[in-house]
Amino acid sequence: MSPYITQYPIPYTNGRYMRLYFLIPILAICLLFNQTVNASEIDRDLTFKRIAILGLEDSTKEYGSLINNFIKNNFMDAMQFEIVMPDEAIKYPVSKKDAVKLGRKMNADAIVTGTVKVEENILKIYVQMINAKTGNLFSTESKWIKDAQKEGNIQKNVKELTAKLISRIPYRALITEVSENEVVINAGKIHGMEDGAKLSAFEIKGIKSHPFTGEIISFEKEAIAELTVIKVEDIFTRARIKEIKKGKNVEINNKIDFKPSLKVIADNAAKRKDLLARKEKEALEMKAKKEPEKEKRKSNIVGLEAFAGLTTNDYSFDSNELKFSRKANSFFAIGFKGELWPVSYLGIDLSYKTGWLKFNKIGTASISTSASPYWLAANVKYRYNFTDKPTSPQIIGKVGYHIYDFSVDKSDSLYFNSYSYKGINIGLGAKIPFWESFGINLNGDYLPMLSVKEDPVTSGSKGKASGYLLGFGLYYVLTEGFIADVNYSYNSYKADFTGTGTRAGGTTSASSTDTYNGMNLNIRYEF
Question: Which residues of the chain have pLDDT under 70?
């Protein structure tokens, strides 16, 4: 009995319900077997050139490496595929999503993996081939070996298992070149191709899969052309197009079927062995020449950010001679920020932000005044990652220079004055991911000593200021490299003046508080 099927007793019932009992699952299975899929996508997805051998999940801690090596060698012996091996341990089991990710990362068309275990003194090997372009299960094979103490016996059984796995691929070769009425095929003498052989080029129009496991059971093929072999080399063949089916075209990656000649294979066994040895030697030489890979960056090297949002401004002024407050509601602000990290932990940034305010009232007095503040900052930053993963939590410290400039119409110098604050900025931030693509950003900056410059009037003979900036945001990774961030920001500046100023005919003991808060949408690109 198959290990994947469980039988249940069928309860007694009358004939009508008994027929329904069988009919419903049969209809469901029929629907599953006849799902409509685009034929060209099927044909393209089933083009296996590059196979990734991920290895087997080994619960025995003894046989996995040996069996994996046999599987790799057997695929290489087929002289039909380019074999790639992972550089790092693979997490088991390989899910559909993981298979597609690994396929892209390793540039592989298919992935081979499986499990090895021992039960009741029987070595049980389960191997599966997964379509790396779709993540779907392509085929499975298994072997139960009673006498697992002999390496030769394991090798023989694994060779049979691998041969069955490869034979499930519904073609023996692919067209690699098309030139006028001739084609080149990636199979030659060592594969059993002989001069004058008649070949069939076809495409796969449909598939039938197991309704529960998803494994492919059978293929629907449609002929494209008939070919005749005109020249056979060791690993490739040139053939002439004899006849093309109406409405079809012969193209690269069309599938080829032919009957291998056992005599040709036997006659070229020595060449096959020599080619395999040469290929293995080249692989070893390339491995020896290959420079050690540089340590992968834990985080981005460059970050470019654009942001826009609505902000409010609250300003209050207090002195012995003049007291007032003003407010600008929901003005539009935009800005950009650029980051560069020459090394993974040390970087610099430059940011600019501006906005457009309109004031129409101070207390009960009607006014009409516009202002255009801007912020400019540059920082040197240090970044600490808690793990080696790109999604690691981070703490970022920075020190730099900050400019806040408030430029206003010169029509009213009583309630309005242009001023500029400049000075050192010290900051600390954190990035905390909740999931791979979602998390929060926290930022806090302190401006301990800011110089003050005012125009056209002054609030005192001398002025000094300080400030702080706070930010909280939720980020979401839209696609690889692009990140959206919705955040709330709060900026506050406090200035104190000594001596007598020229505002309102002369102010003494003046102080002011300037506060901004608002919501922004940031779009960030990292690479």
Answer: 1-40, 87-93, 283, 286-298, 390
Q: What pLDDT is stored for residue 93 in this prediction?
A: 63
| DSSP H/E element including 62 | none
Q: Amino acid identity of 427?
A: G
Q: Which has the closest alpha carbon to 56: 204, 149, 150, 162?
A: 162
For residue 259, give Cα distances in angstroms to 171, 197, 237: 11, 9, 14
pLDDT score at 91: 58
Cα pseudo-dihedral 270, 275, 278, 280, rounded to 10:
-110
Complete edge-to-edge strand list for the sheet that includes strand 82-84: 82-84, 50-58, 110-119, 122-131, 137-145
Query: Cβ(467)–Cβ(450) under 8 Å?
Result: yes
pLDDT at position 38 is 53
Please give the domain boundaries of the chain with CATH numbers for all domains.
35-167 (3.40.50.10070), 173-289 (2.40.10.410), 302-526 (2.40.128.100)
**Buried b or exposed e, range 115-140, using 16+ CB within 10 angstroms:** bbbeeeeebbbbbbbbbbbbbbbbbb
